[in-house]
Amino acid sequence: MTNLAEGLELGPDQLPRCWWGNSFDDYRHYHDHEWGQPVHDDHLLFQKVALESFQSGLSWLTILRKRENFRAAFAKFDFEKVALFDEDDVARLLGDAGIIRHRGKIEATINNAQRACELVEEYGSLDAFFWQFIPPAEERPERLDKTSIPSQSPTSTRLSKELKRLGWKFVGPTTAYSLMQACGMVNDHLEGCSFR
Hints:
A hairpin with a 5-residue loop joins strand 1 (8-10) and strand 2. The protein is 49% helix and 3% strand. The protein has helices at residues 25-33, 42-55, 60-73, 79-82, 87-94, 103-123, 126-130, 154-165, 173-182, and strands at 8-10, 16-18. By secondary structure, it is mostly helical. The protein is globular, with a radius of gyration of 17 Å.
């Protein structure tokens, strides 16, 4: 039997993965093919910000399983379209059982789409804005194991403060750090994970 580092588990394919990546098929696919992969497409970046904001206080599995519904409800996260959503759209979204029906998060997503349009005007792209927040090496753990992955960092706190200064909502330091993980700005696959 193989001795795996703490936090790693063998999957059905006998590949070592981060513990959470083996818990459900949905997680396994997300872990293996998306999480930690660099994202530079503006609509995909906006989708990740929006979904991380919706996830606040909930299980990521809940969001992952509703992701296609979210995409349909929010115009495939085309932030230029979402920025034009009005009160009728808010009412429509509050009645959509396929997504998380939280007025504050729905209104924050519309607001954030408007702020995304402003960011693109200033920086040229969301990609140019977000990727300036790559954490310095000294901020990262020397060795990544289950106990050393942070839930936020000095850089995620800076990103959160800057987004809030620019008028974004539901983007606290923990949400910002989850975004950094999801977009590959940090690589938090554990040491020894086949997908690190």
